[in-house]
Design a protein that fits this description.
It holds the Pfam family Pyr_redox_3. This protein has eight helices and 22 strands. The protein has 448 residues and is of the alpha/beta class. The strands form seven sheets. It has a five-stranded parallel sheet, covered by helices on one side. The chain has a five-stranded parallel sheet with strand order 11-20-12-13-16.
Length: 448
């Protein structure tokens, strides 16, 4: 995520170049975004001696320190954490790193090579250059500058703009509203009950975090699926990896390109990892509703979709277990016996309205996702929804590539598990198109 103004929870090492050295000359390749995806492309370009620069609007990999809540953990096992020339080597490969541990791990990676990063440098406009290539306008602490390049890689993240519904501004101003990326802990919110809207990975885990802290939680349940944490003796994501699910290209994946719009399954890595069972939360006092349809003042309106959403999430959960069963049988693997999830609770009615004042709700956490924002890019590389039209990160616009998008190539894209392969492909394409090696010390940024 680009553009946070909060203070980092950790001091992340930044490998910066002089603020004026890049502006003075043409750079063959510019990478916009200094998260793990952009830096992975930099690793590969550096290993080929390709002259390039990475532009980062804040600090290197700051989003891990700045936009995750205090009790955040990965939902993928630690062994999934692989970046170019670097992989998780701790003593808990099947565990789940906390936010602070992820920051430390990434800091360790940055110490293995020397990416040419300009921090506090935000790209504000990208256009075709008059003499070919691209012109990039950047905003820096000392003013605006213009760079030129032959190749540009956009690594700003798939969906950088937090979504908040239009009617949020009409709600009772005494109710505190935060987006999930602003949420840090229960103590941050005023005393009283909390409404969490959305049950993707962030919404479900934040609802759990608040629930474990003893807060009264109301949860608007969306259409996200869920998955078992462990099944038949192993983590489900380890089974799926062994089955090759994360390596299937989007064009070959069931549902094709529609898979790119799927919400990730909710589950948690907290306390060693476990299922997130919203029905179980309901038996413990959490109030569940269907999708939030609108509201004004202190009144909210919900759609009668709660039962349908719970049933659908459980059906996906059991379907994944069935896929694993078939794989175990086909491969002749010795594993504990199969099982299926049986609902522990069902709503006896579908509440369709809520008076937040009457229920003592003093805050709302919006966890309904993000939207793309590439308005600063002047290029015919986007569909009607503003999403990049790309194949494995490569667009039809010569010299324009993307990295770090969800489902850019596989289900693993955008995750630690898939970034290395995606970055290698983008970098190889750039090299094949004739990117220029640095004139001096071409190997200085080669991974150590």
């Amino acid at each position: 995520m680009i553009g946070s103004t909060s203070s980092p929870a950790h001091s992340v090492a930044a490998h910066s170049v002089d603020a004026h050295s890049v502006a003075a000359h043409h750079v063959p390749v510019v990478i916009v975004g200094g998260g793990q995806a952009g830096l992975s492309v930099s690793w590969y370009l550096g290993s080929e001696g390709i002259d390039h620069v990475v532009l980062e609007a804040a600090e290197v990999v700051h989003n891990w320190a700045d936009t995750r809540w205090d009790n955040f953990t990965l939902v993928t096992p630690n062994w999934h954490c692989k970046l170019p020339g670097y992989a998780y080597a701790g003593d808990d490969p099947d565990g789940f790193m906390t936010r602070d541990q992820v920051v430390d791990w990434l800091t360790g990676w940055l110490e293995t090579f020397d990416p040419p990063v300009r921090t506090r440098t935000r790209a504000t406009a990208l256009r075709h250059g008059a003499a070919g290539g691209f012109e990039i306008t950047v905003s820096t602490p000392t003013g605006d500058e213009t760079l030129t390049c032959d190749e540009v890689v956009i690594a700003t993240g798939g969906y950088p703009i937090p979504i908040v519904p239009a009617f949020a501004s009409t709600l009772d101003p005494s109710v505190t509203q935060v987006h999930s990326e602003e949420y840090r802990n229960a103590a941050q919110l005023p005393e009283g009950a909390v409404l969490v809207v959305g049950t993707g990975q962030s919404g479900a885990q934040i609802a759990e975090d608040l629930h474990l802290e003893g807060r009264k939680v109301h949860l608007a349940v969306g259409g996200a699926p869920r998955v078992a944490r462990t099944y038949r003796g192993r983590d489900c994501m380890t089974w799926l990896s062994d089955m090759g699910i994360y390596d299937i290209g989007v064009a070959d994946y069931p549902g094709g390109r529609a898979a790119q719009e799927k919400t990730n399954h909710y589950v948690t890595g907290r306390d060693g990892g476990r299922d997130i069972d919203l029905r179980g939360f309901a038996t413990e006092g959490m109030r569940l509703y269907g999708a939030l349809a609108g509201g004004q003042g202190s009144e909210l309106v919900f759609e009668p979709t709660l039962q349908k959403s719970l049933d659908k999430a459980d059906a996906v959960y059991n379907s994944i277990c069935a896929d694993i069963d078939r794989y175990i049988d086909r491969e002749g693997i010795d594993a504990p016996p199969p099982a299926r999830y049986e609902p522990v609770w069902s709503p006896d009615h579908e509440p369709q309205s809520l008076d937040v004042a009457a229920e003592g709700i003093t805050s709302i956490v919006w966890a309904i996702g993000y939207r793309p924002d590439y308005r600063w890019i002047e290029a015919s590389a986007f569909d009607g929804g503003g999403r990049p039209m790309q194949s494995r990160g490569i667009t039809a616009v010569p010299g324009l590539s993307f990295i770090g998008l969800p489902w850019m190539h596989t289900w693993g894209s955008g995750r630690f598990l898939g970034i290395d392969a995606d970055a290698a492909y983008v970098a190889q394409t750039i090299v094949a198109r004739g990117a220029v090696a640095a004139d001096t010390d071409a190997g200085s940024r080669r991974a150590s």
